[in-house]
Each structure stands twice: as C-alpha cells, then as structure tokens.
Amino acid sequence: MSVPLYQAKAELFRTLGHPVRIRVLELLQDGPRPVRDLLAEIDVEASGLSQQLAVLRRAGLVTSTRDGSSVVYELSTPAVADLLAAGRRILGAVLTDREGLLVQLQAERQDR
After folding, report:
1. Dihedral angle over CA of 91, 46, 31, 66, nearest 10
2. Sheet bearing 70-75, strands edge to edge
3. CA–CA separation, 49 vs 20, rounded Å?
4. What residues form DSSP beta bridges with 66?
5. How far is Cα 85 from Cα 105, in angstroms, rounded to an integer?
6. What's residue 112's pLDDT?
C-alpha cells in the first residue's frame, strides 16, 4: 500500500526541519561541494554533519559521489533550490514585522 501524498509531504518537511540540513542545502545551491568544504562553512562536528548528510541522502534531496578520497555532495534536483527560494519568499511575506530577519533575507537574495 502506498503512502498518501500528504504524508509524504509531511515527511519531506520534517526532513527540512533541521538548521544544519537547511544550511547544507543552501551551500549546495552553488554546485557540488566536498564534505571538507561543507565542514569549513558549518559550525558542526564532522560526525554531526555526516548524520545530517545521511538524512538528506535517504530523503533523496542530495546525492553523493566519491572523488578520490573525498565525498562530494550535490542537490539531487534543481527543485530543491526552488523550494529553498520559496521558503525565503514565504518568510519575507510573513515576517515583515521582524526587521532583523527581513534584512538578512534581503541580503541573502542580493548574494544570489
């Protein structure tokens, strides 16, 4: 028996419900990156990053390939970047009263 679509969507959003996972996905929007580069950008232990990457991989949001001794991750589909962009737009629309976060969102938009 297949899982109802609403349940699959809920699982996707649960997967996105961790700051390290969101940061990884944001970094991968610019293209494939080896784990060592992700570690340099994210304030987390290697074991913690490895756990979060495994969750993203199991969910099908990222793929990994081996390049010599390095493991390189990338978004599985451009739709993941579209989802992150939609999240930024939604936050911009609903958080207009939270000036500091809105300024951060606008600065991030200019960086892209």
Report:
1. -150
2. 33-34, 70-75, 62-67
3. 7
4. 71
5. 10
6. 67
Mean pLDDT (the chain, rounded): 91
Residue count of the chain = 112
Q: What is the largest CA-CA distance in the chain?
A: 49
SS3 74: strand
What DSSP designation does 59 have?
T
Strands annotated E in 1-112: 33-34, 62-67, 70-75
Joined tokens for residue 110: 């200019």
Of the candidates 26, 22, 44, the one whose C-alpha atom is nearest the C-alpha of residue 111 is 26
67: closest CA among 34, 28, 30, 27?
34
Tokens representing residue 106 in the block: 């606008």
Report the pLDDT averaged over residues 87-106. 78
| pLDDT for residue 97 | 64
